[in-house]
Design brief:
CATH architecture of the largest domain: 2-Layer Sandwich
Order of helices and strands: EEEHHHEHEHHHHEHEEHEH
Structural class: alpha/beta
Number of strands: 9
CATH class of the largest domain: Alpha Beta
Length: 288
């Protein structure tokens, strides 16, 4: 069982603003190498992101930019199965490569969250976040450290392979199949309820700011990949999508009320990922 598990942390809601990368390499199911580095995102640090992972400008002072480590990433990841828990890390790597006009990785990406949902019934429809699954499996790790998160994703994948008896190659086929073939499929009548078979089922999403796509279009796309589409930010919200031009507004009253409310809930300990619309589009594309 050969693969690399990877995780990234970002400086702000732009997923290309990577400020830390951690990865672990497994050969025949055994840890053979690990690598972690801070990255200078050449971008601002949002206080919300800093409150989550604790990384700020002082930590990345003197650190390489993404373009300086792309060679190392190619060495580890090209022609390799790359594992991340949910597609966000994959998208961040892609967006950073595009920002710096460097060659994208030639990898086969496997979402361990999709593996988890098809391995354990208790995580099929909810609670399949990395921390929740690791807690259930009895694995302790420090959240929001890129290397620790990468190790946790690797642990989860190995546990799922042992539990299911399906090898990594087999999982590339299995994740494209229904979680539960006996459940009815998603249909237009419930397009805002979230496709139960969608890879992001259980996520509650809200849109704010000026979007390129119509609200009905983004709602349809979000529901098609499993998200419950909500009108306003609540304690149940897990993803807030902000228009690209709005994401760079200064902190404070220039942000929308939904944006400010989401940040307030994050400060209280609620887990809400804030992303821009172009990253949401990539998320939909990767979730097909």
């Amino acid at each position: 069982m050969n693969f690399v598990a990877i995780d990234v942390e970002t400086a702000n809601a732009d997923m290309a603003s990577i400020c830390q990368i951690g990865l672990v390499k497994y050969v025949n199911g055994v840890l053979s190498d690990e690598w972690k580095t801070y990255i200078n995102p050449e971008d601002y640090f949002d206080e919300i992101n800093v409150s989550i992972h604790g990384i700020d400008e002082s930590d990345v002072s003197g650190a390489p930019t993404f373009s300086k480590v792309i060679g190392t990433l190619h060495t580890y990841l090209d022609d390799t199965v790359v594992v991340c828990h949910t597609p966000f890390d994959h998208i961040a790597i892609q967006q950073a490569a595009r920002r710096y006009y460097v060659p994208e990785l030639r990898s086969r990406w496997l979402d361990s969250a999709r593996v988890v949902r098809r391995t354990w019934k208790e995580y099929a429809w909810k609670g399949y976040g990395l921390y929740s699954v690791c807690k259930g499996l009895g694995y302790d790790f420090k959240q929001h450290d890129a290397l620790e998160d990468a190790k946790a994703a690797a642990y989860v994948l190995i546990a799922a392979v042992k539990q299911s008896g399906i090898g990594i190659d087999g999982w590339f086929d299995r994740v494209r199949q229904p979680i539960d073939p006996t459940r009815s499929s998603f249909g237009s009548a419930v397009k805002r309820e979230g496709n139960a078979e969608g890879p992001l089922h259980g996520e509650a999403i809200v849109f704010t700011g000026k979007l390129e796509m119509s609200r009905s279009k983004v709602a349809d796309l979000a529901a098609s990949i499993g998200c419950q589409v909500e009108l306003g930010v609540t304690k149940k919200t897990t993803i807030l999508v902000v228009g690209d031009q709005d994401i760079r507004k200064l902190a404070g009253e220039e942000k929308s009320s939904k944006h400010r409310k989401a940040e307030g809930l994050i400060k209280k300990g609620f887990t809400i990922k804030i992303i821009k619309e172009s990253d949401f589009k990539e998320l939909v594309e990767q979730s097909k």
